[in-house]
Amino acid sequence: MKSTQMFAIDCEMVLCEDGTEAVVKVCVVDHNLEVKLNELVKPGKAIADYRTEITGISSQDLEAVTCSLPDVQKSMKKLLENGAILVGHSLHNDLRVLKIDHVRVVDTAYIFQSSDGSIHKRPSLNNLCKTVLGYEVRKDGAPHNCLDDARAAMELLLARVKNGVDKDFPVQLQEPVSESDMARLFLHNISTTVNSETLDKVLPGEYTIEVKPSRKAGQGNNKYCAFAIFKNPLEAHNAYENIQGTELKDSNGRPQKLVKFRLDAGNTASIFVRKTALHEPRDSISLKRGLQTDDEDHISKKSKREDDAQLNEIESLNERLKESESETASLREQLKQKDLDIEALMLQLSKKDFEINLLNKMVASLKKRR
After folding, report:
1. For 227, which of 48, 154, 166, 366 is 20 to 30 Å away at the CA?
2. Domain 6-171 belongs in CATH node 3.30.420.10
């Protein structure tokens, strides 16, 4: 545990058919930014979505790959066996898919302080690179580069250490939120059975629906997302406040609402609704301007798919509730039948008591005659 070695890691993940994520690429660099590991990984499960637009990896890239997760785990164990420090951005996501537990870690998402003195939990890697290092790790819409991300995480840590970890390192972690962003609500986890005309009736107020093309390919893709665009931020804010739904949080801890509604066919559907900016308008003239704590990248490679998990859990609980209600109704019916059976038995018993009483009187009368 006396080692001061440091290694930065980044992983790319794909979505498997069982709903879990699997690692398909791992990159590790040392403090000199020299590559220690740069491997494509063959998942041991069927893949539902390669997320090629994000990962830059397709099925063809993995055809000849023989490296497996246990192989990567062995390599990581060798690198970390002397107590080296593992560095990464939102590192828990990488450790989760690698199925590795390591104590000595530095997460670059937590080691910088905002210029306003507050600590933000999840600034994006790209935004940190722009504000701390002066360059973008990727352009908008470009796929992630696993090796570049690992190097960026190490450079961010080195910049923090160079400044002195005991000194303040205030940076502008966020970019100004545009008024157009504040005038939108983000709708996601929408079933493909719900069309835009239906969405137009779900939220209060006047707005237009902008459907976002899905980045996911494959037969398992039955969800999409959209924006509800209002005339101004105040109308968007009021619409969100007036939405009747269950208060929840997304995978980044941002508040959102689960909204349920009935389709024309009679069945129930649901969507998640959240603001695209975290700040509240003061009034229709003056709006409180804020700074974003994270990119709007709602289909992040690091996503835990907690929105889906929340929805699935709620639907599962609803199913259990329906089953319990059905069982309760059945038991009540049985109890009612039992009550009827008891009443019938009591009536029969009463008749028998009457017959016995009558027979006793007849016997007594015959005895007197003798």
Report:
1. 48
2. yes
